[in-house]
Specification:
- Helix content is 74%, strand content 0%.
- With 209 residues, the protein is mostly helical.
- The radius of gyration is 20 Å and the shape is globular.
């Protein structure tokens, strides 16, 4: 709206068409992570995710044309792959952990939720997002192998940062042993799976190094 408002002369209007297009596309792509989280928590069907992604990608295409951007030079949105969730252990377990964390955080007292809970869900969102990015394409060159490794490493880092927050929340909330064991069992399983995938990737894609 600002682009086509003739009396608006600040911000986005100060750059050329290509710059405007790149900015708008970056904002659209910024929807990807919260959508992945929403789809996982609410258990969206594939067809509903596709409708949403198609609308976003159609807008990206139109904005790209407006900015004269080269086809293939911009990112596009993608769905949460339900087949991968069912068949790939490290994605399935991460989805389970992500949903379990949100279930607990939403029932916390508001003060704890705003201090520890929000940080925990942000880390869970980022870990899930990075895992989905890493598994989106099978690497066929060195650059794709590097990107996959970076995404998996970022996911692993998020999980590592979650551990002390989880223990802090357990202490404050006084959860039963069963609940704590359920959450930590899922957490530890995901950590082991991610490390195993990264070790496997080193051997699997060694020819690209």
């Amino acid at each position: 709206m600002q682009i086509f408002e003739q009396y608006f002369n600040y911000g986005i209007k100060l750059v050329d068409n290509s710059g405007q297009a790149e900015y708008i596309i970056s904002e659209l792509i910024g929807l990807q992570k919260p959508l992945i989280s929403l789809w996982n928590i609410q258990g969206y069907e594939t067809r509903k995710m596709v409708v949403c992604v198609d609308l976003i990608n159609e807008e990206i295409t139109l904005v790209s044309r407006y900015g004269g951007l080269k086809e293939g030079s911009v990112k596009h949105a993608f769905i949460l792959d339900r087949n991968a969730v069912q068949k790939v252990d490290f994605i399935r377990i991460m989805c389970t952990l992500h949903k379990a964390i949100y279930t607990k955080v939403i029932s916390m007292p508001s003060t704890l939720r705003s201090m520890k809970g929000e940080l925990l869900t942000e880390l869970a969102d980022e870990a899930l997002f990075r895992i989905c990015l890493a598994n989106r394409f099978m690497p066929t060159n060195a650059e794709m192998v590097k990107t996959r490794k970076e995404n998996l490493s970022l996911a692993l880092n998020c999980l590592a940062r979650m551990r002390p927050i989880l223990f802090s929340i357990f202490n404050v909330m006084g959860y039963s042993e069963r609940i704590m064991l359920d959450i930590m069992s899922t957490y530890e399983k995901e950590m082991k799976l991610l490390k195993k995938v990264m070790e496997s990737d080193e051997k699997r894609f060694k020819d690209y190094n």
